[in-house]
Amino acid sequence: MPAALALSADPTDESTRGSKFADAMSMLASGVVLVTSRVSGRPWGTTVTAFISVSAEPPTVLISLASATASAHAITTSGRFGVSILGDDQLAVARFGSASGVAKFIEAFVDAADGNGTSPVVAGSLAHLDCELTDAVQVADHTLFLGRVLASRLPGGGTPLLYHRRGYSSLGGRVGGRQRLRAERSSRVSRVDS
Description:
By secondary structure, the protein is an alpha+beta fold. The chain has a single domain (about 30-194), classed as Electron Transport, Fmn-binding Protein, Chain A (Pnp Oxidase, Chain A, Roll), CATH 2.30.110. Helix content is about 25%, strand content about 35%. It is built from four helices and eleven strands, in the order H-E-E-E-E-E-H-E-H-E-E-E-E-E-H. It has helices at about 15-25, 70-80, 90-100, 180-194, and strands at about 30, 35-40, 40-50, 50-55, 60-65, 80-85, 125-140, 140-155, 160-165, 165-170, 175. The strands form two sheets. A seven-stranded antiparallel sheet has the order 3-2-6-7-8-5-4. A four-stranded antiparallel sheet has the order 1-9-10-11, with no helix packed on it. A hairpin with a 2-residue loop joins strand 2 (about 35-40) and strand 3. The two termini are about 30 Å apart.
């Protein structure tokens, strides 16, 4: 086996294995979406990168959410959810939906023309999918939700927001400040070298 592919961690050391897994997964660039639902009748959104198309016929998607979240509970209860695909100009939306331990009511980001449709639509999103829950599978501390797409909307054009190496990017480069990126890289190098 080539040295680059050899496992360097003791397979019995859970913390090392989990850390290396997280580092490895951070190398995969992912699109950023806001999974939308309604909590207490109000629009709610959670930022997710674990989102894929499963089938074109019938149109089906899959999202992964921590099982104990308000979003997971809302989707399980209502049987509905939405997926707004975010553009690289929607960094504020992505950060709001990924904040830990805070309410994620998204009235400030919702398309006012949407009204009380099947799922809240993020204004200016590249695309939005209204989905009906078809299956939910619990895996470890997450639930995989499969949804049949009932309607697809293409409200805007633009460039997608991406998530890579624990930071937001676009097809043209890093979003949210190049100076901060340089400082983060420098800090990572220092930690690795110490």
